Amino acid sequence: MATATIRIDVWSDYVCPVCYIQLPVLKQLAYELGPRVALVWHAFELRPESMLVPDPDAEEPGDDWSREAFPMASLRQIVPRRPVGQPLSRKAFEMAAFARQRGCFEMVHEALFRAYFEEGRDIGEETVLLELAQELSLDTDALKQAIDTGLYLEDLFADRQQAESLDTSVLPVICIRPASQLLDEAICLHGSVEFETLRSAVAQILQAA
Description:
The chain is an alpha+beta fold and 209 residues long. Helix content is 48%, strand content 11%.
């Protein structure tokens, strides 16, 4: 098996519209690079569960859709629904971590985005996640136990801690680097990034290697 020469780390949230719309662009890049790239997704909760009091100055989810997400979605031939509310995403990230350990992360990762943005499902609710897991032929009893016991919370907290050195004011955060180098040597891009911009960053990394 070939060893990846490029590593792309992405911090995103399943309730972030721009993260959802960026997904097919990153998939296209990974497909083009093939075994030369390791694409690694990280959890970054927009609304951590410790934030019990809503920020009165925060925008409503619909603001992002009207201003930015719908035009981008149209350009990328994505037809999402406008979500109703913005659920907490911690349990969804726990489900993704559960899937990663079982070798089916990509399937579950994309299903979580679709469930929220295309099907209008509340992915903050454990019952909804268990229904989705059943549809994906996952072990629902094992998933429930993992969520109820917080089995993967340390992984989520580690992802957030790793992002402390990055500008996370705009998601997704996309960091591209040689696989052998540290994160602080990466080229980091934010938000909606066109395919050619990503490709140019990869070329720059390869040329410097």
